[in-house]
Write a structure and sequence with these properties.
It is an enzyme of class 2 (transferase). It comes from Novosphingobium fuchskuhlense. It holds the Pfam family Methyltransf_23. One of its GO terms (biological process) is methylation. With 249 residues, the chain is α/β, with parallel strands linked by helices. Helices cover 34% and strands 22% of the residues. Helix 4 links the parallel strand 2 and strand 3.
Length: 249
């Protein structure tokens, strides 16, 4: 739920909102508690996607060894740190300077060498990466097409892009915005339902940028399982994308 950093996409008010949460980002019982619950589910999908795309050993501890990974809208590093532990040389970008400060401090305390950057992705000149992730971010940007184009531009030949985001449905309006913010599961003002994007809309944006979207997987909640991967896309979904066949690099 952090904010992205590509030209013409940052909303200053969104960056400020998440920057105020930076001090509690690593507290599993703090304002980012939902992200802590969501992260293992995202990582399970991500690990399977990495193993499949890069033909990695499913039992290996470092499937990204020798590869570069970029996390866009990284917050204080909840995803960047696991990527580093999987062996990747990780760069992570966020629009909120407070988030980057918290991320650097946490990574240094854990002995992880992660290249954290604050600013516009398009202006940073970071090059291309084997794996690019952007989780719970696109719903916060001002120009989704520009954001997707910026992400795609950082994916290396043969690379993989992974995104997750809430779906724009009646269920997500009631549960992710109404109920979740009312009971304090997420801070008030975190979500704006009208900015959510459907899988079809995301697929169209990726197609326009020359990428093909894989089959989305839903992230659902139930009293017995909690948050889990499912075929139900009504609340939240996660998906891979890669350069479409015949597209130029």
């Amino acid at each position: 739920m952090s904010i992205a950093t590509t030209a013409a996409t940052i909303r200053p008010e969104e960056a400020a909102h998440f920057g105020k949460l930076a001090a509690e980002w690593w507290d599993p019982k703090g304002s980012s508690a939902m992200l802590h619950k969501l992260n293992p589910v995202r990582l399970a999908f991500l690990r399977e996607a990495i193993d499949s795309h890069f033909a990695a050993d499913p039992k290996g501890l470092r499937p990204l060894a020798g590869r570069r990974a970029l996390d866009v809208g990284c917050g204080a590093g909840l995803l960047a740190e696991p990527l580093a532990r999987m062996g990747a040389a990780v760069t992570a970008v966020d629009a909120a300077e407070e988030n980057i400060a918290a991320a650097k401090a946490h990574a240094e305390a854990g002995g992880l060498a992660i290249d954290y950057r604050h600013g516009e992705l398009a202006a940073l000149g970071l090059g291309r990466f084997d794996l690019v992730t952007s989780m719970e971010v696109i719903e916060h940007v001002a120009d989704k097409a520009a954001f997707i184009a910026g992400l795609v531009a950082t994916v290396a030949e043969g690379g993989l892009l992974v995104l997750s985001t809430p779906n724009r449905t009646t269920a997500s309006r009631l549960l992710l915005v109404g109920a979740a913010e009312t009971v304090g599961m997420v801070p008030k003002g975190t979500h704006h339902w009208e900015d959510f994007i459907t899988p079809l809309e995301l697929s169209d944006l990726l197609t326009e940028a020359g990428f093909a979207m894989g089959n989305p997987k839903g992230i659902s909640w139930s009293p017995l399982k909690g948050l889990h991967l499912s075929d139900d896309l009504s609340l939240n979904y996660i998906v891979t994308a890669r350069k479409a066949d015949g597209e130029q690099a």
